[in-house]
Amino acid sequence: MWADVVCAWAYIGKRRLAAALEEAAILLEKRDGEPVEVVWRPFRIDPTAPAEAEPLEEALRDPVTDTALQGCAPGTTVAENHARVSEIAAAEGLGPRWGAAWRASSHDAHRLIALAYEQGGAALQDAVLEGVLRAHFVEQRDISRTETLREIASTAGFAEGARLLDEGGAEEYVRETLLRGKAIGVTTSPTLVIGGEALAGAHAPEVIARFVARAAAEPRRELPAEVERLRLAEALLDKGDPLGCLTLLGALMEEYPEERSVRMLAARAHFHSAQLSRARGELETLVAQNPDDAYARLLLGRTLERQGAKEEATPHLRIAAAMNPEYGTAGGPAPA
């Protein structure tokens, strides 16, 4: 489940998912030797939230904040969403007192939730998540404060959580997992993902149950971790996030520095993020290794053009066009 702890629908979705799993006995049976398990992944509906929390009522007067928070309920204003969700929350037993009081960054809360899963599995993660959600929406506490998170962790039986937070635990994991969510197309909170199937929104338990039953029955082919990472990085580039692509590629570039597919994707990402010197270095090596790679020639030529080295670019562009005529039409296509 990809969700943000400052999204009220995430709390409602948590309750509805639990109800769906209780109602559908088939979901509790073992599949392929593994029990059904719910794992919570980070999503940010308001990535611009300040490190130091501010009163939510005051923040909502800012139209920029209103727009950012619509990631929790696309198609509605924050005021409309608040009125609707308050009624539903009461029906789900989350009231009677309900409503966040703070616009708070959820980054450290996501780190704590991730650490809970890493240290104690799904059960501990669920307890910590419940504590964070209750603190934010029912107790109206500031979940960006270290002291608040420390108390939540202790109450959930995760005493070492505060120490791990102080040591920077799960910092890289959260930042990378946010990119993974973006790569697979998660755009709202909550979104339930099973294999390659996704269900966006806090649907009724019976809808969730049917989705889980159907998705769980589909055959799953696990990709090698490095192949999955490469595909996710490429997806980020396709979505216009070359820097995110490079972030996911980092581990592959260290482990497989000579792998051509990794280096080509890195060169593309450097080109599209205007890191032209790095793109040129990679592409010159790739062309030297494989002179008949038309696309590498095209991209090197375009890189040299953007650097103002037109004379150096021309031979590469001519060779690329000779090998692939499409690259020579009307200046050639823009490199993808």
Automatic annotation (TrEMBL):
<dbReference type="Pfam" id="PF14559">
    <property type="entry name" value="TPR_19"/>
</dbReference>
<dbReference type="InterPro" id="IPR011990">
    <property type="entry name" value="TPR-like_helical_dom_sf"/>
</dbReference>
<dbReference type="GO" id="GO:0016491">
    <property type="term" value="F:oxidoreductase activity"/>
</dbReference>
<feature type="domain" description="DSBA-like thioredoxin">
    <location>
        <begin position="2"/>
        <end position="210"/>
    </location>
</feature>
<dbReference type="InterPro" id="IPR001853">
    <property type="entry name" value="DSBA-like_thioredoxin_dom"/>
</dbReference>
<dbReference type="Pfam" id="PF01323">
    <property type="entry name" value="DSBA"/>
</dbReference>
<protein>
    <submittedName>
        <fullName>DSBA oxidoreductase</fullName>
    </submittedName>
</protein>
<dbReference type="InterPro" id="IPR036249">
    <property type="entry name" value="Thioredoxin-like_sf"/>
</dbReference>
